[in-house]
Each structure stands twice: as C-alpha cells, then as structure tokens.
Amino acid sequence: MENQLGVLNALDAAKTQWYHFTAIVIAGMGFFTDAYDLFSISLITKLLGRIYYFDAHSAKPGTLPPRIAAAVNGVAFCGTLAGQLFFGWLGDKLGRKRVYGLTLMLMVICSIASGLSFGKSPHGVMATLCFFRFWLGFGIGGDYPLSATIMSEYANKKTRGAFIAAVFAMQGFGILTGGIVALIVSAAFDHAYKAHPYNVDREHSTAPQADYIWRIILMFGALPALLTYYWRMKMPETARYTALVARNAKQAAADMSKVLQVDLNAEQEKVDKIGREQFGLFSKEFAKRHGLNLLGTTSTWFLLDIAFYSSNLFQKDIFSAIGWLPKAETMSATKEVYRVAKAQTLIALCGTVPGYWFTVAFIEHLGRFTIQLMGFFFMSVFMFALAIPYQHWKTHNSGFLIMYSLTFFFANFGPNATTFIVPAEIFPARLRSTCHGISAAAGKAGAIVGSFGFLYAAQSTHLDKVDKGYPTGIGVKNALMVLGAVNCLGMLFTLLVPETMGRSLEDITGENEEDNGHQQSFSVEKVPV
C-alpha cells in the first residue's frame, strides 16, 4: 500500500520476536484472572451454602437459595457487560495504554476485597461478596476490548490471529489454576481440620475454619494480575492509536523504534493525509461501511455465549449422574470442594484447554471464518446428539461425558476464540476498542441469558423433581434441543463475518483509502498467507 505509514508497515512485516511474547503474557493475564474468577466461584457456591445456610433439620447440606445463587453467580457478568462498554469507549477516547493499568488495578483490589466481608450474617457476607464481584467484573470487562485491540495493533499480519488467540487462551490456564488452587487449599484444610460426612454428624460436617477456604481461593486471583502491573505500565501506546487516532507520527515512530529496535521515520505529512474523514459510530457512513460486520460480531458472540455458559451449568448435574461426585450428604464440606474441583479440573484438561491451543495452531491456516463455522456446526451436532437420545445417555455415562467434552472442545476450537479475535481486526482504529466492547457486551448478555434462563429452563417438568425453590422447567433434554438450535443460528450469522487472514489492519478497514472518498469493500473469501 503506497499510503501505508512506514511505522505500520514495519509492524506488519516484523518477524516474530521477544516483544510479541511479552505482549501475549501481559495482555493475557487479564484473561487468566477472568477465567480464574468465574471458574472458582462455581467451586465455592456449594461451600457457601453449607456454611451460611446450614439447617440442622435437613437431611441434605445447606445450599444457597435460588435468588442468592443467581446473584453470586451473575453479578460479575453484569459488571463485565458494563465494563466492556465503558472501557471500550474510553480506550478509543484516551488511548489503550492509559486505561489499561486502571482495569488491572480494579481487578486486583476487588479480588482481594471479595474475600473480605462485613459482619458474619449470611446477608452481610453475600451483599459484600456481590458488591465487590460486580466491580471485579467491571474491571475484567475493560480487559476484553483493550487486550484484544492492543494485541491486534502490535502483531504482524501473518501471525496476528494466532497471537490474539494466544491471549484468549490464557483463560485455559486460569481455569486450570483455579482448579489446582482449590485442590491444594481444600486438601490442606481437610488434612488439618478433620470433619465428618454430613450424614454422620450434621453439626460438625463443616469445620469452622472452612470459612477461610473460599476467601483464600478468591483472593489468590489478585496475584497474577498484580505481578504484571509493572509491565503493563511500561508498555508504550500502540503505534496505530498514536498515529491514526492521536495523529502524532513522531511519537509513534519513537515508540516503535524502541520496541522493534530499528530506526523509523516520522511521516507526519502522510498521517495528515490519511483518514481525514472522521465518521462516528452512529453515523450513516459507519452503518454503510461497517454496520453488517458489527451485526455479525455481536450476534455470533451473543449466540455462542448462550450455549457456552449454559453448558457449564450442567457440569455438576452431569458429574453427579455419572458417579464422579458422590451425594453431597456423604461428604464433609472440605471433601466436597476437593471432589468438585477435581472433576472440573479434569474436564478443563481434556476438553477446554486443548481447544484454545488448536485455534492458536490452525487459525492462520484455516482462517477465522472456517474455524467459526466449523465450531458452531459441531457444537450443534453434539448438542442434538446429547438431546435426542437423552434417556439412552442416562445409562451410558462415559459416552455422554465424551460428547459433552467435545462440545467444549469445538467451542474453544471455534467461535469462543474467533468471536474474540475478529472484532479487534475489522473496525477502524478510532472505533476499534468501542466496537470490540459492544461485541463483547453482546456476548455477556448471552452469558446472562444462558446462565439464568437455563438455570430455570433445565429444571424438571415434574414438580417433585425440581431443585428446592425453583418452578418447573422444560427439562434438560428440551433445554439441550434449544441450545442446538441456538448454535444453528450462530452458523447463519457467521456469514456476516468477513475473513481477515493475512491482511493488514488498514487494508481490512480501508483506512488507507478514506481520504480518497472510496472504501475498500470486504470479501469473505480466504486469503492465502
């Protein structure tokens, strides 16, 4: 491109080097914390029920009432959705780097604070936990658009998809670490403070010290984020923001000369020429050029997260059904935390983590479009395969578990990764972070629908079989059928998402041509690397 700035050309053509890997780790730590937090709360809810909602007359251990459970699980989603919209917008207004440290500090403070509580009453503890988990979610939400945008603007065009996927894949390590920390902490407490199973001694099945377990697990989430704070502050602003949005060619060249360790010229006259036509997010021009793409990224992320987060909900039921988890009343509180953590860590190792890294390995060969379409296709196939012969799977547990793991595998080697990558590539620099935030927020809205809608929908159609405090639902079989249909819709909306493999960001968005009054049109064909 004759209009392309030298500094951006240098980034696009740069060989993979050390700064790429440090950027992946620095950007990925937010996702590590995000996954650690969302994952660990599912391990802790059973313990909270036993500690704060103990009923000596009940044959089963205490559980969180439905509304409290929904609040504890869901309040972080609400915070994340708000954070994605707010920090996405702020990242385009103030710059990626200036906002980046703020989101991390918010995550660190709220991770620590969510392990503390004011008062000892159940209401006091739950209110404190929900308050800090909302603001923790708010910080995590900011990390989505900022991390994706920073990585896409730093990367070279040949490996950009793999690098953004690697940032997202840090979630896998967060999930694993969540499981391992819970295993270590619960095993240590179980060893130090012996407790009887609930059906042997109800009063003493939960050791008083068990109250520290959930606090330690939650607070540990602050550590990895805190360790990367210094490096986040040292990262220079991305050249694409400095040159194309702040319009400071000299600063962009100076920053990238240090990063790439080459001499680059400041080309202020080129910067002044490029992209003088500044249309806004709500303009007709934006709707004409990028409207369909924004519809594609928001709808696919929304549909994916309905399926992805509601599948997570079935985990504990599935584990109990296939005999991985003994009945709650046959275990002490610490033993239950240990067993749930063990089962979830195994699922993460087998299905979740490999899927992420398959995307990293193949995205620059197959392309985003193909991986997303394939992922949605196989997710719907496995959902229907689980749903239609549902009664058969009740007696064939191992088959059910394999199919269930494959659903997660193709979510991660599929739309869970690509819906994160594409919005960071297809929008102009001055709106990139905002549009990624909007797409991610649509995803979190899907997560809220998936988590709460299906919590109620998956309840049995028979009143005597529903969980305590819930109305009757449509049953797990029908819920799985609905999820299969949601994935089919995801395939349909994927057709609105363009292929971006092997192209420079300015070539994709048409920013090089904006001053000539014509826009390069998108094409959905695959581009050879």
Automatic annotation (TrEMBL):
Keywords from the UniProt entry: Membrane, Phosphate transport, Symport, Transmembrane, Transmembrane helix, Transport
Pfam (any one): Sugar_tr
Any one GO molecular-function label of the UniProt entry: phosphate transmembrane transporter activity
Domain of life (superkingdom): Eukaryota
Entry's Gene Ontology cellular component terms: membrane
NCBIfam families the record matches: 2A0109 (TIGR00887)
GO BP annotations listed: phosphate ion transport
Protein localization: Membrane
CDD domains: MFS_PhT
Domain Major facilitator superfamily (MFS) profile: 23-502
PANTHER family named in the record: SOLUTE CARRIER FAMILY 22 MEMBER
Protein name in UniProt: Major facilitator superfamily (MFS) profile domain-containing protein
Family: Belongs to the major facilitator superfamily. Phosphate:H(+) symporter (TC 2.A.1.9) family.
Transmembrane annotation, as ranges: 21-48, 68-87, 99-118, 162-189, 212-231, 345-363, 369-388, 400-424, 436-458, 479-497
PROSITE patterns assigned: MFS
